[in-house]
Amino acid sequence: MTEQSTIPFLDLPRQHAHIREELLENLTKIVDSAGFIGGPYVADFERDFASFCGAKGAVGVSNGTDALVLALRALNIGPGDKVVVPAFTFIATAEAVSLVGAEPVFVDVDADTYTLCPRALEALDQKTLSQVKAVMPVHLYGQPADMDPIMAWAKKHTVEVIEDAAQAHGARYRGKAVGSIGRIAGFSFYPGKNLGAMGDAGAVTSNDMDLLIKVRQFSDHGRKTKVEHSVVGQNARLDAIQAMALGVKLRHIADWNAARASVAEYYQEALGQKGDLGIGLKLPITGAHRTHVHHVYVIMLNDRAGLSAHLHAHGIQNGIHYAAPVHLQEAYAHLKYAPKSMPVSERLASRCLSLPMFPEMTEDQVARVADTIATFAKGSAS
Ligand SMILES: *Cc1c(COP(=O)(O)O)cnc(C)c1O
Known about the structure:
The chain has 14 helices and 11 strands. The radius of gyration is 21 Å and the shape is globular. The chain is 40% helix and 12% strand. By secondary structure, the chain is α/β, with parallel strands linked by helices. The strands form 3 sheets. It has a 7-stranded mixed sheet, with helices on both faces. Strands 6-7 form a two-stranded antiparallel sheet. Strands 10-11 form a two-stranded antiparallel ribbon. The site of pyridoxal-5'-phosphate (PLP) has 15 residues, from helix 4 and helix 5.
């Protein structure tokens, strides 16, 4: 066998090669001016990101978890309240609810799109429903949740909709970009997200400017003016260096998302014709009325551990999103959800495997991943 190079899970240094000079020039300006907090880079990015989302406004914040916390606080959600979240997501969705003193209510996800199942909302009992103040659909892996029935359910029960858009910058549902559909939304700019900063960062978007005023106030020590603090806030601001990097990258995200879509098509062409390969293989499915921005490319299969090891042995990096549904994580043991209470989420957690996915990934690299999966399938059949 010839020595083959590693196929990384994502390749940020390569992405930065094109924008490196611009980032460093701007960084020099920030260092020389010492304008590290607030200022024009933050204001410009907030304006441009709101416009990218088709939302009236955006407030830059410290990270995606804080974005969700601030959205909850702006809606006055806290102790005694419940918030519905999908069981299959990154733990931060539920963590934000717990951090404001409210309690997450886990519901199962759809078996094909892996996003919050609207039928699970209909199944909530009256007692729980009477305490539910919000639902937080997650646009998982880059695909919008099924927003129409979620919005209709929320309206019927006077419940707020907070979008967790941390994985789906630029994805659309019926033509509307995520971050402009619910009452308010939280984004993460963790470096590995589709739009990533040079450290931790996040944003809150909304069409309700009064709500965003509250978000900004909570994010900046409850300040009304420089010296007057009218509520107990926190420090969760976006800093100038991150806003600068995000402003540079925002100009490329449409191209990068389009390149991710091509990579997903290459995978579909290379693997989609072959059925389940005898290993229970299932490729990502995009639900009706949605565009998918493929934050991660997640396949499902029977022997996840076996394929993961096989890929690693052939120099192909891979990951797991997520190994356990949130209701069964130790952190939420106190809520006493029983195993098998969320059958779809639990099945997905034992079967999911994330393959390399990044805008610069080539068709040849995808072909090598697909061939390696095919040799694994042959090996497990014999
Ligand atoms: C990344 C992520 C978050 C949290 O974002 P951080 O910036 O890491 O705090 C929240 N929800 C989901 C679904 C995420 O993927």
